[in-house]
Amino acid sequence: MKRRTLDFIFSGGGLLLAILLLILGFVMADQASFAEDYVKEQLSEQRITFAEADKLTEEETSWKEGSKCLTEYAGKLMTTGKQAECYGNFYIAMHMRRSAANAAVDGEKMGWDDETYATMGGIRSAAQAELAAAKEKGDKEAEALAQKKVDAATSLRSTFQTGETLRGLLLTSYGFSIFGEKAALAATVCYIIGGLLIILSVAGFIHAFMTPPDKVVLGGNGG
């Protein structure tokens, strides 16, 4: 095979691959832009604003290692996936844990610190059974206490339902934003590799035109 022919084959193949990579890059960049705009639009519609720094409690800013993000975003309108993750994981989650830890009946803590919306269903059912038994016995004091337990369990479960629903929506937005970031990174990689292939392909075409027409490689007696 002539060297010039081989150069044309490799250069043409490289150019074709470069074009495909650039097209893929444009597609990924478009998806990244869509994800970013979608997340910003959806979060902006919620009009969630982070508390001002001077309104944050020490517990809120030190609850977990990542809680410092509440200070970073203090006073800002939530518009990004990172902000949504911060609010969901370190503000809503902390307040749900605090509500569970503070749940009490007649000043006595109920010990529901580690409970969730799902597990509170069983606790409320047990309290309701206790209430029914007290009513059946006609024990007014026990009935009043059981009713308070039912009310406390119902209230905390409602808090969990609201908090976990909002937190789930915010973390979904965060996940969507991560998809956009990955798409943007993939687009950049495609552009870089595509650009390099174009440079190499152009160099290959130049080499082909500079190579003597009768030069042979891969066998033959050319120069």
Can you walk through the features of this model?
It is a single chain. With 223 residues, the chain is an all-alpha fold. It has helices at residues 3-46, 58-62, 69-72, 81-102, 117-137, 140-210, and strands at 104-105, 108-109. A two-stranded antiparallel sheet has the order 1-2. Strand 1 and strand 2 (108-109) form a beta hairpin. Helix 1 (3-46) packs antiparallel against helix 6, helix 4 (81-102) runs antiparallel to helix 6 and helix 5 (117-137) runs antiparallel to helix 6. The two termini are 12 Å apart. The mean pLDDT is 91.
CA-atom Rg in angstroms: 32 Å
What count of structural domains? 1
Query: Can you tell me the overall shape?
Result: elongated
How can the largest sheet be summarized? 2 strands, antiparallel
Question: What is the count of β-strands?
Answer: 2
- Could you tell me how far the N terminus lies from the C terminus, measured between alpha carbons in angstroms? 12 Å
